[in-house]
Every structure is written in C-alpha cells, then in structure tokens.
Design a protein that fits this description.
This protein is mostly beta strands and 251 residues long. The chain contains 2 helices and 17 strands. It has 2 domains: 35-123, Sandwich (Immunoglobulin-like), CATH 2.60.40; 132-249, Immunoglobulin-like, CATH 2.60.40. The chain is 11% helix and 43% strand.
Length: 251
C-alpha cells in the first residue's frame, strides 16, 4: 500500500469519526412532568372469599414515591383519592385499622398523567387453622407426605403450606423456600398432600436434609399477598394466627 493511499484512509476515517461525534449532540432534557390523580377502591373479602359490603370506611391508604408518604382514609364505599400527583413511580400500601385484614401493597407502578385507577383487594385474617400435621418420609416413594387434620366446617376453605430449610417458617420472604396453596372441601377434616422430592431439591433441600413444614389457615382466593420487588417472592399477611408444624427427611 502506498504512503499516499494510507494517508488518505486515515484522513477519511478521522472525518467520519468527527461527523459521528457531531451528530450525537448533547443529552436532551427529561420528559415533561404532568399532574393528575390516582384513585381507587379498597375491596374487602372474608375467609371464604366473599366480598364484604361493610367496614369499608377509614382504611388507611398510603401512597409513596420513596421520598414522601401521603396517607388518606377511604370513605364509606371504600373509595380513596390522591390528587395533585406528578409523573413518577409509586407504591400503594393499604391497612385496615379494625377487623383484622392482611395488609397489602401495589408495588412500584408508574403514573404518567391524567387519572389512574388502582383498586386494592384485602382478605381477612382467617380464624381457623389445622388441628395437627404429620410429615412422613417414605423410602419407597420420591415424596414427603403431609397428613393434616382440621375441624369440620360447612364452607369450603383453603390452607397454605410453607417449607423451609430451617425451623423458622412463616409468610415473609426469608421464612419459606416453597409454598403450596390447597383447597379443603366443605365438611372435610383430613387432607393428605404429597411434596415431590424434585420440588425440595430445586430449592436446595437435598436428599437426607431436613425439610421443615408449617401449615396455616388461608383465605379462599386470598387477595392480600403482594410481591417483594427485590426477591420476586410473595409476602403473605392474611394468615391464621396459629400454625401447625412438622419436619421430615427429604427423599
């Protein structure tokens, strides 16, 4: 390659780079901020999954953007309104001051402009729980088995099983590795649940390790759980105040 040709290639390359840089230009300003309203209703459900028409007033609804918290009560119909809201990301938290409902959240949603409707659903903390649970590990099958006994009820109900690798078991993000929601038909007093070894192994409870179990009463179609954004796991708040516990060796 001649020196003249090489020089020409260098000049053309520098010219193209300078043109590219000039076309980038400075960073533009942020998009416009709008002001509007976030509103909605708090809907309450009993332990059998039926929506309630009473007790809707004076639930505490909090709107936060990570800097400021704004708190408003619901009216008699369960409605709430946050006026003069600017564009941004927000979280709604709801708490019923009486009647024992599980707190809930609508985490990290985006408000752009105009009026945004965000309804909140909450379930009552159930007043039933299992009477007992026994965990059985069978060498002949690739499962643990749970045998759970309940007091009879004329309504269909639900219960939830939490599994952990330690004896600390609850509905917080650190309190379980696995969870199963099960339905209990009306008047049924016994349930047998198989826990596949593959499920245990997937969360690090390997063959020969101890799996710890907790079983709580749980509202039908529970509306209160919400996602913890940092872990992707659910936080469960509408659980019976009492649980039953067992453990078994993972198959």
């Amino acid at each position: 390659m001649s020196k003249h040709l090489a020089f020409l290639i260098v000049v053309i390359s520098l010219f193209m780079v300078s043109c590219f840089k000039e076309n980038i230009g400075p960073q533009g300003p942020a998009g416009p901020l709008f002001v509007g309203t976030i509103r909605g209703h708090v809907w309450l459900y009993d332990q059998y999954g039926t929506r309630m028409d009473t007790g809707l007033a004076n639930a505490q609804v909090t709107l936060t953007n990570g800097v400021l918290d704004t708190v408003v009560p619901t009216d008699a119909s369960g409605a709430f309104t946050f006026p003069n809201i600017t564009t941004g990301n927000y979280t709604i938290t709801a708490h019923v001051l009486t009647n024992g409902y599980g707190d809930t959240q609508l985490p990290d949603f985006q408000y752009l402009s105009g009026t945004l409707n965000k309804d909140v659903k909450m379930s009552v903390i159930p007043n039933f729980w299992p009477d007992s649970v026994t965990a059985i590990q069978s060498a002949a099958t690739p499962n643990d088995s749970l045998v759970i006994y309940f007091t009879a009820d004329t309504h269909a109900r639900s219960y939830i099983i939490f599994i952990n690798s330690s004896a600390t078991i609850n509905g917080t993000v650190t309190g379980y590795l696995l969870s199963y929601v099960k339905n209990l038909p009306a008047n049924q007093t016994k349930a047998t649940v198989l826990i596949p070894a593959s499920d245990l192994h997937d969360v690090g409870i390997n063959t020969g390790a101890t799996a710890y179990y907790a079983v709580y009463g749980y509202p039908v179609a529970n509306a209160s759980p919400y996602e913890d954004i940092s872990t992707g796991k659910n936080i469960y708040t509408a659980l019976s105040p009492v649980a039953v516990y067992a453990n078994a060796v993972a198959p």
